[in-house]
Amino acid sequence: MSPLEPKRRALLRWTAGYARADFAADLLAGATTAVLLVPQAMAYAMLAGLPPIAGLYAALAPPLIYAVLGTSRRLAVGPVALDSLLTAAALAPLAAGDVATYVAAASALAILAGAFQAITGALRLGFVVNFLSLPVLRGFTSAAAILIIASQLGPLLGLKLPSSAALWPLLVALAEQLRGVHGPTVALGVGAVLALVALGKFRGKALLVVVLATVAGSVFALEARGLALLGPVPSGLPAPAWPAVDRELLLGLAPAAALIALISFMEAFSSGLAVARRGEVVEPDQELLALGFSNIAAGLVRGYPIAGGLSRTAVNAQAGARSPLAGVVSAAIVALTLALFAPLLATLPRAVLSAIIVVAVARLVDVAFVRELRRTRPRELVPLAITFVTTLALGVGLGLAFGVGASLLLFVLRTTRPHTAVLGRLPGTQVYRNVLRFPDAETVPGVVIIRLDAPLYFANATYLIDEIRRRIAAEKARAVVIDAGGVHDIDVSALANLRDFLGELRRNGIDLYVADLKGPVRDVLARSGLTAELGPDRFSFTAHEAVQRASNAPTPAPDPRATQAWP
Q1: Following DSSP, what letter does each residue of 397-463 receive, concatenated?
Q2: Which residue(s) pair with 434 in the sheet?
């Protein structure tokens, strides 16, 4: 199937049956979302170290592309906090240099990230999303939110703090400059934060605060009082152009672009799923294509990497969006802002944009998830904690790498020591259950029934066989039944271990029976000759049938050459 085929389906999916009432709903939802998008886009651009106008550029083209290629009806694409932080971290070496080079590098970063996403989508590799576990993602986003808030302390306090990918240098710089805190800036910044919090769920709160602060900046001449303002903001729409960057810089940005491609896809895909209604499907591969081309479009109009943010997506859905056309309406309002109102933003205090960022990202610090994890899966607090601490200490790139590594290591350790259970028959039934969970389950004298709850492979085969050996010794069993219902795969190393163990059992006069073996594993055993070696009559569909065979079988004579001393 060509990668172009899903694109056509995605477009037809929301246009089929589209009615006038749907357009009216999209018009209202798009306008409502734009009220949040315009101030957030400028604020997030500032977080990325870019001129605020770059955020509006990044909010302009992506919704148009996503409307054609996307599969989520309500996802609102554009600048988001996490991508902005990742952009700032990636471009940190350029922060002290030429502004034009920094802006061009940000656009190139968007194009590279988009290319990674589009290629990954075309190759149908959307399953890569599975390599970021939820604990790692929550630990990462919580730490990133703290880094974002810390990075905004400078504008909120009237200080010029150096940019840093880690938390400690920011705190040290803050402590050194604390005496230089600018009172009026603090008053305005804290006042803006309190106003945004007090306005609660009012959707236009960010725009209202921006308008009032812009008017105040002009009427009260706040710049003369020492407050930092946006300054001149160019008007008009950007013309598409390739960013002026050399090949060396482009190659240097590639690792950061790959990270941004993964994180932005994760954020957008999870946001799209969160607002999907019954019967609606969000296709990961098609979403990669849509986000990829949206990012490329953002880079071509002097924007920077974008994603689908949960906050604006939720607003879009709650406002009644029926299709991606709502995003087109939002983009049209952004274009109108650029064409008519951009120069009016010159007197907007930067502290107000920092306040918008702080309030928006504070919700990303997910304490409730930590409590839930502690209650349900305490061991998964380990990758969460590692990701959280290393992201704060080392920065977003290394933090995420450490988190993914810890998560994979925990998974490997879990598979090398998988769960096993001794089974007994529930009274009056043919059902066998874990004797530790069902104390009334009846065991069979001389027969140990053990269930394996994992595939057999080179890293756990020795452990599992040792477990079986230990159970046999504890029960002084003459027969062992392996309930293999949880064994969905077996490799050649495990086959070799199993063959050696079978010989060991025979030398000690102990029979082996296998129940509930899955078809693919049964095929492997047959091709290896182990089925014939053990005997077809030793395989049963159910544990009960295997136990009956083991109970009725005569006790085999031990081989005098046995080397294993069985109790």
Answers
A1: HHHHHHHHHHHHHHHHHHHHS--EEEEEEPTTSS-EEETTT-TTPBPBTTEEEEEE-S-B-TTTHHH
A2: 423
CATH code for 420-552?
3.30.750.24
- Determine the average pLDDT of the residues in 226-255: 94
CB distance 510 to 478 below 8 Å: yes
pTM of the model: 0.85
| Angle 180-185-187 from CA coordinates, rounded to 5° | 115
Contact 240, 300 (CB under 8 A): yes
Phi, psi of 490 (to 5 degrees): -150, 135
**pLDDT digits 0-9 by tens, 139-189:** 999 999 999 999 999 999 999 988 888 999 999 999 999 999 999 999 999
How large is the angle between the packed helices 247-274 and 396-416, nearest 10 degrees? 60
Q: Please name the residues in contact with 482: beta carbons below 8 A apart, sequence gap of 6 or more.
A: 450, 451, 452, 468, 512, 513, 514, 515
Phi/psi-derived region of residue 556, left when phi > 0, alpha when psi is between -120 and 50, beta in every other case: beta
What is the rounded distance in angstroms from the CA atom of residue 310 to the CA atom of residue 268? 8
- 258 in helix, strand or coil? helix
What is the distance between the alpha carbons of residues 257 and 385, in angstroms, rounded to a whole number?
25
pLDDT over 90 for what percent of the chain? 78
The answer to whether 482 and 450 have CB atoms below 8 angstroms apart is: yes
Three-class SS of residue 342? helix
Which are the contacts of 175, defined by CB distance < 8 A and separation ≥ 6?
none
User: Smallest Cα–Cα separation from 270: which of 328, 298, 309?
Assistant: 309
Say if residues 516 and 543 touch (Cβ distance below 8 Å). yes
User: Do the beta carbons of residue 442 and residue 473 sit within 8 Å?
Assistant: no
Nearest-angstrom CA–CA distance, 9 and 71: 9
- C-alpha dist (Å) from residue 358 to 350, 362, 390, 450: 13, 6, 22, 55
Task: Give the integer Cα–Cα distance in Å for 475 and 51.
Answer: 74
Question: H-type helices in 123-177, by residue range?
Answer: 134-151, 153-157, 167-177
Number of Cβ atoms within 10 Å of the Cβ of 247:
7
Determine the straight-line distance between the first and last CA of the chain, rounded to whole angstroms. 62
Quick one: tokens of 183? 């009172």
What is the Cα–Cα distance from 387 to 403, expressed in whole angstroms? 4
Q: What does the pLDDT average to over 520-533?
A: 94
Cβ count within 10 A of residue 72: 31
Please report, for the chain, the start and end positions of each structural domain, with discontinuous segments joined by +: 25-136+231-348+366-409, 420-552
Q: Give yes or no for residue 36 having a pLDDT over 70.
A: yes
Task: Give the SS3 label for residue 132.
Answer: coil
Helix (H, G, I), strand (E, B) or coil at 539: strand
Task: Please state at what angle helix 134-151 crosses helix 350-361, rounded to 10 degrees.
Answer: 160
pLDDT at residue 565 greater than cutoff 50: no
Per-residue model confidence (pLDDT) at position 557: 53
